[in-house]
From TrEMBL:
Domain of life: Eukaryota
Name of this chain's protein: Damage-control phosphatase ARMT1-like metal-binding domain-containing protein
Organism: Sphagnum troendelagicum
Family annotation (InterPro entries): ARMT-1-like_metal-bd_sf (IPR036075), ARMT1-like_metal-bd (IPR002791), At2g17340 (IPR016949), At2g17340_3_helix_bundle (IPR035073), Type_II_PanK (IPR004567)
Domain Damage-control phosphatase ARMT1-like metal-binding: 50-364
Stretches assigned to coiled coil: none
Lineage: Eukaryota, Viridiplantae, Streptophyta, Embryophyta, Bryophyta
């Protein structure tokens, strides 16, 4: 089974107050008073969420033409992961429990790799990346045509939400994609109206316009429209306003998340290198744009386990951006940092919407200014 060999360290910008303990799990699955060997209602609820994802993962695995006997092996994956979820429901302390989003994602990827699958979404990621790159110039031009800085920032934030809907880890979205595909423009036009369930957009805009950051670290999410049409135009705006940008992408494949190697290839395709060696990204200096390996191999993020490369690159950052439901909402919504931070993503599980008191496909933009 393939595994990560990247050295794991703690993200250096996590806050270390005496009364604050970082926990990479926004929704508490259980409390200390809950019986240890009996699944809680929340655990049962989330075990069912992951159980519902099995058919779409099995279907995608069956289509993996890089694996011999893919259909048979996909069936073994489905049975094995389903059995693990049943075991955990019977006794939450099995398989490394009690469970949380990180453990359940990790067990699913382990089952896939034990069955012989390394990247069952690779083909669809490649296709979506290619489609998105063709649309990127239009998306950038549309943003540049907005002369008011505040309006342009709001437009770019909405672009991040619009791209983030391309998430094949959510069973309902996987079905929508399989039946009809997804359109970035349609998603943009159909965003739920403000106010969103968490809506700090105005505060974020005011801070950006008042004093741009020197360096931003952005934890990216999905391939295709998400990273290409959502994050890259957003990052370009940071660059053009004088901010160095570090894009942190996964070390290994998981769902349809973009990997470090894939993102490096995308950035190399959209950069323009002049005869004198100057690198630009749609007329913005691209030398201040860096892509690093986050060290993660999951669609969620535990900031106590990131790569040394990312830790070094982030040391002097004054803005941390966590993007996507898994990284910014399900695992790090309440994370506290030594610098300004932005959590941004679309809510794609009803269970998350219910927890937040919002709507399915609601938007979250949570901005925290650093406390001096």
């Amino acid at each position: 089974m393939a595994s990560s060999t990247v050295e794991q360290v703690q993200f250096p910008l996590l806050q270390h107050w005496a009364d604050y303990i970082y926990r990479p799990c926004t929704i508490p699955y259980r409390f200390p008073s809950d019986p240890p060997h009996q699944a809680t209602r929340t655990e049962v609820l989330w075990l069912e969420v992951f159980r519902k994802s099995i058919p779409s993962f099995r279907k995608r695995a069956e289509l993996d033409d890089t694996v011999a006997d893919a259909s048979e092996k996909a069936g073994k994956f489905a049975l094995r992961y389903g059995k693990i979820l049943d075991d955990i429901q019977s006794n939450p302390e099995k398989h490394g429990g009690p469970p949380d989003g990180i453990l359940l994602c990790r067990l699913r990827d382990i089952c896939l790799r034990e069955a012989g699958f390394y990247d069952i979404f690779r083909k669809i990621k490649d296709e979506e990346n290619a489609k998105a790159i063709k649309l990127l110039e239009h998306v950038v031009d549309t943003a540049d045509a907005i002369k008011d800085d505040g309006e342009r920032i709001e437009h770019l934030v909405k672009g991040v939400f619009s791209g983030n809907i391309f998430d094949l880890g959510a069973a309902q979205l996987a079905e929508i994609y399989s039946s009809s595909g997804m359109s970035f423009q349609d998603s943009f036009e159909n965003l739920l109206p403000r106010p969103w369930v968490i809506d700090d957009l105005d505060q974020f805009k005011q801070k950006w316009l008042r004093k741009p950051w020197k360096k931003a670290v952005i934890f990216v999410d999905n391939a295709g429209a998400d990273v290409v049409l959502g994050i890259l135009p957003f990052a370009r705006e940071l660059l053009r306003r004088g901010t160095k940008v570090v894009l942190a992408a996964n070390n290994m494949p998981t769902i349809n998340d973009i990997t470090y190697e894939e993102l490096v290839q995308i950035v190399s395709k959209i950069k323009h290198v002049s005869e004198d060696g100057k690198e630009t990204f749609f007329e913005v200096d691209a030398r201040q744009l860096m892509v690093v390996n986050s060290g993660s191999d999951l669609p969620v993020m535990d900031l106590t386990s990131i790569s040394q490369e990312l830790a070094d690159a982030a040391e002097d950052a004054d803005l941390v951006v966590l993007e996507g439901m898994g990284r910014s909402i399900e695992t790090n919504l309440y994370a506290q940092f030594k610098c300004d931070s932005l959590n941004i993503g679309m809510v794609k599980h009803k269970e998350v919407a219910d927890f937040l008191g919002g709507r399915l496909y609601d938007c979250v933009i949570k901005f925290n200014e650093a406390i001096p």
